[in-house]
Design goal:
Layout: H1 6-9, H2 17-25, H3 32-45, H4 60-66, H5 68-71, H6 85-92, H7 106-109, H8 121-131, H9 142-155, H10 164-172, H11 178-192
Helix pairs in contact: 2-9, 3-11, 8-9
Length: 194
Amino acid sequence: MNILNLKKLYPNATVGIFEALEAELNKETWSDENKMKFLAQCAHESANFRRLTENLNYSLEGLIKVFPKYFKFGYRDPYEYRNKPPKIANLVYANRMGNGDEKSGDGWRYRGRGLIQITGKNNYTKCLNDLGRTEPEYLETVEGAVRSAIWFWKVNLLYNEQSMNVITRRINGGYNGLEDRINQYKRIKQFVLL
């Protein structure tokens, strides 16, 4: 399996990401099939290996569509939140995953980072501890983005899983983007098995 071939498929990817993936994935004993599913999930979560930090810059329409619980049914004024990523993160991630309330700033501090988008204080604490790091920003580096994604895959035992539905649900909490994740897998398979 040649992960470096993905440079042709994702020419705008973060510089050095495929070299880091090649080096780290070669250490793992997962099947090639499972590694391709890992790469497909990473491709989806990181906007084709371009984003190592969650994009929370939502327009008015985006807020209502993506977060209806808060802005369509939750009686919050989306005009106060539109295009304000820290404010959005602090709202939607408040009082969850070990985060404090909206005023704590934890939602923004522990927003999605890395290729799998590690989110929430609890996950950050476990991940950074296991990786021997302390600073959340480490997950924004190429090395941290790759290592945190592999960490997530391992602690959730996804290396034993073949179903894209199950993998997606474990990563996403639902099936958001399932079709894209499956399409990413099909495309990746054509390039890495050359």
